[in-house]
Recover the amino acids of this structure.
């Protein structure tokens, strides 16, 4: 007598709920950056930098990266995330020291390295979000991750690289008086408000990506709790 029952199909568990703790921490860190970015990026004020405010979101981002599940991410991806997060946290005090110092070249270079590490970390997180969204067939989240990568590249990395390179070239053409003058671009008037808006827009887009990923992971977790699977 044959068994007429249909074979049970295993339902693949979505990956995003496993990253929910990390996603919440990233969202909290980016909320701090978005709030502090209004006076710092848009208005060019350095008051918050004197109080080491940038160290707090850097620490939260490192904790969030440490909470990324090991089994669901490749070793290379996790290593890149940890390296970028550690580098950003280690270099995060240097913008304050550079602001308080009287043109210390070492502090200025380390501040630039801190900014580069932060942008590197954002790009790596976007790549992780793309992987999670594509594995879970989340089309909108995939598009948002690609859009965020494009905005960070075109509105943050390329413009900042161009500004710093133009400052260095100004040393040879006589436009910049000193190396310190070429590297200090955040003083109001050194870069245009148009570029500041682009930089802040790219950060807001990354915050939106974190919020979208967190909301999607929360909805998937609720669905898993309501509908048990075999």
């Amino acid at each position: 007598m044959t068994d007429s029952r249909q074979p049970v199909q295993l339902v693949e568990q979505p990956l995003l709920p496993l990253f929910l703790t990390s996603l919440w921490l990233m969202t909290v860190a980016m909320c701090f950056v978005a709030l502090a970015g209004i006076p710092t990026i848009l208005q060019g004020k350095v008051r918050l930098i004197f109080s080491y405010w940038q160290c707090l979101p850097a620490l939260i981002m490192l904790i969030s990266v440490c909470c990324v599940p090991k089994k669901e991410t490749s070793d290379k991806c996790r290593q890149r995330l940890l390296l970028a997060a550690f580098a950003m946290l280690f270099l995060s005090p240097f913008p304050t020291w550079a602001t308080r110092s009287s043109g210390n070249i070492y502090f200025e270079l380390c501040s630039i390295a801190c900014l580069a590490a932060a942008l590197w970390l954002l790009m790596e997180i976007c790549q992780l979000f793309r992987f999670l969204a594509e594995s879970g067939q989340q089309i909108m989240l995939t598009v948002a991750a690609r859009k965020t990568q494009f905005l960070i590249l075109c509105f943050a990395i390329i413009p900042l690289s161009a500004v710093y390179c133009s400052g260095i070239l100004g040393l040879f053409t006589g436009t910049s008086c000193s190396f310190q003058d070429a590297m200090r671009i955040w003083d109001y008037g050194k870069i245009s408000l148009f570029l500041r808006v682009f930089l802040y827009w790219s950060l807001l887009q990354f915050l939106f990506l974190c919020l979208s990923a967190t909301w999607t992971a929360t909805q998937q977790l609720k669905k898993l709790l309501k509908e048990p699977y075999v």
